[in-house]
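Listing 4. Sequential folding, example run.
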Amino acid sequence: MNVYWFSFLFSVGFIVVVLDLVRRRKLKEQYSLLWLLVGLGLLVTSSNTVVLEWMAALLRIQYAPAVLFLLGIIFCFVLILHLTVVTSRLSDRVLRLAQEVALLKAELAQRGRTASPESAEGSLPSGGGAQRLCGPEVPASEGKEGRR
């Protein structure tokens, strides 16, 4: 089996796997479009050797199937960069949410200290809802050891 057949069969299998992941809702549609385009691009370049050899001649690459590997490496770098940007954005969102939760916990603790027990019961959900949502209150004197 030569490299062209291997890449052709790989691209067909790749497209089938992507479609199956979308069908089982393991991959969102917004990302599946990117992966389907990659699979189709690989399918076109592996099935049409003229395009691949033209790209190899343009890039002055002696072994035309090496263009497939070059394109794959370039795609991996672009994908890693994209995932790093997404991870950074999500990290910022998690930090912001953690800060908001801390502020809400402090506000609930402040309300609990200043209000009488009768008025505090009316403002909090029944069954200790603040405890359920925010977790158990840890006294400041316990520090990190008390949270474990």
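-- end of first protein; second protein begins --
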Amino acid sequence: MEAKTKTHTPNKVRRRKQREAAKEARNEARAIAKFVKAAPRKLRLVIDGIRGKSTEEAASLLRFTPNRVARVIEKVLMSAVSNAENNMQMDPDALYIHQAYVDGGPVIKRFRPRAMGRATPIRKRTSHITIIVKERGDEI
């Protein structure tokens, strides 16, 4: 009798395949921008205004928002739309923002000299922006 050898699949590869299969089942596309040099609190003000809207409406809102972080969010949104169109074969006109959130990234810590030999901390905050888009007809 000949022994059958089983090839071992590393956990990392197995998890990646499971994630890809789950992504196909959910039928959504995402884009993530990491280490954006802006405070999460400022980004959330703009993100809250576009959540749930169609991608065209959100893009026009971001284009005319007088805020520096709106340009970064617009780039992430356009990347998510492009991912949906090219990787998932979705119709770009039927897309809407299913989820949009901002997580805090690492904080760069500096110190500023003050009066009487003291120093006060300065926290330069960074953020991670995630935008997930779906097609309008996919709601359950």
